[in-house]
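Incident review: delayed structure delivery

Summary: a single-chain prediction request sat in the queue longer than the usual turnaround. Root cause was a stuck worker, restarted by the on-call engineer. No data loss occurred. The affected request and its eventual output are reproduced below so the record is complete for anyone auditing the incident later.

Affected input:
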Amino acid sequence: MGFILSLVTQERELISEEVDFIKANGVDGEFGVLPGHTPFITLLDPGELVVRKGDSLYAYYVSGGVAEVLPKSVVILANTVEREDEIDEQMARKARHNAEEALKQPITESERQTYLLDLKRETVRLSIVARRRSGQHPGQLTEEDGGGPFHI
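Output delivered after worker restart:
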């Protein structure tokens, strides 16, 4: 038996269903949730949300937000969410390039932090795209890592 995951943005509810496991990026680091997890609330860092339901794994890009973890449910209120098939690779490449170029220029510390966040966001989005293209599932280890599917 799993737990209910609700993944919501201001614009839409992406998921409200039973899942078996999630992995996300909190501001204090990556965390995983299984049924019966100890309750906590955390702010989310931009990153990948991996969801396992049965034998299927799904990946989402989450730009930040809040996660509330309870023993029988997880609610993620996200600023922005993109399913892996919604990520525009060309736009992500251009945005990453623009951030890299801006960071080479003399800029204020505030601008630097903004461009570093842009760089992080686009790097995560592009890694999700690259993995999807390679056929590797989210959370799957490569052969060099010594793992197969579902080794998260």
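Verification: The chain has two helices and ten strands.
Action items: add queue-age alerting; document worker restart procedure.
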